[in-house]
Amino acid sequence: MHQALTTKLIECPRDAMQGIHDFIPTALKIEYLNALLQVGFDTLDFGSFVSPKAIPQMSDTAQVLEKLDLTTSTKLLAIIANTRGAEEACQFEQITYLGFPLSLSETFQQRNTNKSILEAFEQLKAIQELAVKHNKILVVYLSMGFGNPYNDPYDVAYLEEFVSKLSALGIKIICPSDTIGVSAPDNITYLFSNLIKSFPKIEFGAHLHSNPSTATEKIEAAYNAGCRRFDGALRGFGGCPMAKDELTGNMATEKIIAYLESQSVDFGIDKIKFEEAFKLSLEVFL
């Protein structure tokens, strides 16, 4: 049996919530996140410090944070998109990780943040300095991590250039993200096996999107290639507004758990608490 600490589950309710048009009441967010904190996930991607005009759903992140029960071992991750957001997030001791989206696609970087990749790297330097100063750990998500629809450059060698630059900044956790649902077992295997071999000191995570029928084969490919960090969202809520297949969403956490259990991986989930959160998710998202 694998050791419990070797495989990390990161639950991403922020990712699942942020695209929902109707505002989810703050009290309900707090109730749901507190339920998730009892489950035993390694980390909870719970909110973001970004412009409320850009992501109105996350405008109450600071209020939500005040009411979270942080007596469990689960750590908190907040998404930030610029230096201002990082400065705000760094004021909260409760937050362990800052998550920053960096695109491999110049087109998507411009559309998503109105900045070039070069400008984003410059900002990352300042954010990493802030993170170190405030004892935070920066997690970089490489969006369009498995390809892009814009014919921008993409291959593993190109991706390795990004990882090398990030490593030079002192960043230790990097998560290729399947922004548009184009990952498949072959490119997942190729990407993670190459990256893990080339950068043994970096912790690589899989932020995959999938439709229900292809989820397990994607998880299996990442796991067999050596990935031990998996992002998911209960019931696969949220995901890819750009994906051509409307069934494509975040990787369903229950699919990740089912696969890991089939491989006798012990990762410390409380099944009863998981079921309670699973039921509550329907009140949040439907």
What does this structure look like?
There is one protein chain. With 286 residues, the protein is α/β, with parallel strands linked by helices. The chain has one domain (4-285): Aldolase class I (TIM Barrel). It has eleven helices and ten strands. The protein has helices spanning 13-17, 26-37, 61-66, 83-89, 106-113, 117-133, 156-168, 185-198, 215-224, 253-262, 271-285; strands spanning 8-11, 43-49, 75-80, 95-103, 137-143, 173-176, 203-204, 209-210, 229-232, 249-250. Helix 2 (26-37) packs antiparallel against helix 11 and helix 8 packs parallel to helix 9. The longest helix is centred in the middle third of the chain and has 17 residues, at 117-133. The chain is globular. The N and C termini lie far apart (38 Å).
**CATH-derived architecture:** Alpha-Beta Barrel
User: What CATH first level would be assigned?
Assistant: Alpha Beta
Please name the CATH topology: TIM Barrel
The largest sheet, given as strand count, sense and whether it forms a barrel, is: 8 strands, parallel
| Widest sheet, order of strands | 7-6-5-4-3-2-1-9
- The number of distinct β-strands equals 10
In short:
The protein is α/β, with parallel strands linked by helices and 286 residues long. The protein has helices at 13-17, 26-37, 61-66, 83-89, 106-113, 117-133, 156-168, 185-198, 215-224, 253-262, 271-285; strands at residues 8-11, 43-49, 75-80, 95-103, 137-143, 173-176, 203-204, 209-210, 229-232, 249-250. An 8-stranded parallel sheet has the order 7-6-5-4-3-2-1-9. The protein has a two-stranded antiparallel sheet with strand order 8-10.
